[in-house]
TrEMBL record:
Keywords: NADP. Belongs to the NmrA-type oxidoreductase family. Coiled coil: none annotated. The keyword Plastid does not apply. This is NAD-dependent epimerase/dehydratase family protein. Residues 2-236 form the NmrA-like domain.
Amino acid sequence: MRVAVVGATGFQGGAVARLLTERDHRVRTLSRRPEGDRPPLPGVSCATGDLGDAEAVRQLFTGATHAAVVMPLVYEAKRVRAYARNVAEAAVEAGVRRLVYNANTRVPRSATDVAAFETRRIAEEVLRESGVPLVVLRPPVYLDNLFSPWNGPALVNDGVLAYPLPADVPAAWLSHRDLARAVYAALTVDGVEGRTYDIGGVRALTGDELADAFGRGLGRTVRYRALAPHIFEQGLAQAVGPVAAAGVAGIYHYMAAGHEPLLMAGDDGLSARVLSVTPTPADEWVSRQPWQIWANDPEEQDAQTLT
């Protein structure tokens, strides 16, 4: 395949691009960042450009046989519609055989006032209406969010797992790697075009169940603490800016208000079975991560660096 990957310089799109190149497919992407500011993507051809530039998007798709798309952290409806339209027109013109759109979140059945949901719904509708052969994936929340400077030290040193979901809300946590495997399957498996899949982990876990899984993976006691969404938003703003942080946090404000408590719970593994993907159990995923980098003990950190 020759795959146009929209979002390859981000976490989810990057995982997809890496998997594609590992399997010897040609990958091309587009980034607003100057070359020196982009994350390393071995084997990926990257041009400088913006999704708002129709000609840049057209060039990205020229010669592509397939496409994998995730939208950037933009939550303005007009801009997202324009991005999706540019992608759709370029994909149709290029004769793309299949486009997989990662909504990067579950999407409620009914309209809401949450931009993080509604802009992703807009993008999905634009792509579907274009007639491009389409598969939509709607993942819940990512395990990789927890392997971060915001969560790692508290987990390793204090046994505290803090996240802005209510403790009793079940979520089908998924890793970036397993998301990439699902995208790959959606690009290649027969009979899935036109379908939407609520891909998720092996089973949905409440906060306490997730903490138990982390405890097994880390070999220590871990307790779950529901983080207030506004606190989460403040911390995220330091990394991605206040506008993007507000967009992302809208999902957690929605969940904290008690709307659709099963939204992130998945479909009992149906999507994974159709796509022939077996997501990694949370405790197994935890056990594979180098958590020692967050340890307070300098000697332990040094040993981890050397290994």
